[in-house]
Amino acid sequence: MQPTPPVLLRALTKRFGEVVAVDGLDLTVHDGEFFSMLGPSGSGKTTVLRLIAGFERATSGTIELDGQDVTATAAHQRDVSTVFQDYALFPHLSVLDNVAYGLRVRRVPKRSRHEKAREALALMRLEQVAERRPHQLSGGQRQRVALARAIVVQPKVLLLDEPLGALDLKLREQMQVELKQLQRRLGTTFVFVTHDQEEALSLSDRVAVFDQGRIVQIGTPAEIYERPASPYVAQFVGTSNLFDSATSQRLFGIARRHGLRPEKIQLHHERVPDAEIVVEGVIAESIYLGSEIRVHLQLDDGTQLIVLERAGEHTEHRGEKVVASWSRRDLVPLTDEKAS
């Protein structure tokens, strides 16, 4: 017998007037996984999160949490907690009382809820700021307080709506590590919304890529990156060289649309006879990125390629003639068909 999933969506649809924000979506989130919904602004991912949380009502379809149909259930009656990008902390309450607020709403006695709140703060390494007000904390500390407040009620599912978006790069990277470690310690199901593909790939057990209210691909980070199903996914998740059917036929002898990741291409200053696919071109631009160099290559037939190389391996100069090679197995067949 299959275990009951903590989140199950069936034919979920949400319309705002004439706009279809979520279009007949089916989704199963497994128990204890870190699941990310990835897509650009307006793709429907945040609306799906708000539907699960109960902040929006579905136009049609059903939402099940741990086997219970909660489609018409009020937000406060659902066994989920939500962490927002703007923290949503009460400025007039201490950190301790902010964390304990959800327990207060559940009528947990003061002594018990403060004890549990201190345990949650200890988990986030924030015991020393329990009596401060939110305005006395850094951005990273406020985000940890928001997480502590969300987990203190021990929800079945934790919903995170771009919770790291307001942080600077270094702090964001640090919080990504802490967030993943927290999820592993708790074993709670995390449903995470982000528009940052690197964040989704580094944190998630599985990723759903959204476009126009639908899921266009779902899989592990490696599956999404190494085997994108469509040109949209290949371009949105990382960078990819796209070849239409005519170009594929000319270069590879296969009349089908393909994608090729830039790091799969090797550049040489002379022809490589044992390579499977070899093309010649001229360097149009070479951009230094610190650990990498992004080379823009124009092939003799006018095709444009992007190549990523480790900095220091080669010195590429604009206008220089080079040879590019790659393995046939690194070509990814693509389709424009979209999943539901």
Give a short summary of the structure.
The chain is an alpha+beta fold and 340 residues long. It is 27% helix and 31% strand.
Description:
By secondary structure, this protein is of the alpha+beta class. It folds into two domains: 7-236, 3-Layer(aba) Sandwich (Rossmann fold), CATH 3.40.50.300; 241-333, Nucleic acid-binding proteins (OB fold (Dihydrolipoamide Acetyltransferase, E2P), Beta Barrel). It is built from nine helices and 18 strands. A six-stranded mixed beta sheet has the order 6-7-8-3-9-10, sandwiched between helices. It has a five-stranded antiparallel beta sheet with strand order 13-17-14-15-16, with no helix packed on it. Helix 2 packs across helix 3 (110-123) and helix 3 (110-123) crosses helix 4. The chain is elongated, with a radius of gyration of 24 Å. Residues 7-237 form the ABC transporter domain. One of its GO terms (molecular function) is ATP binding.
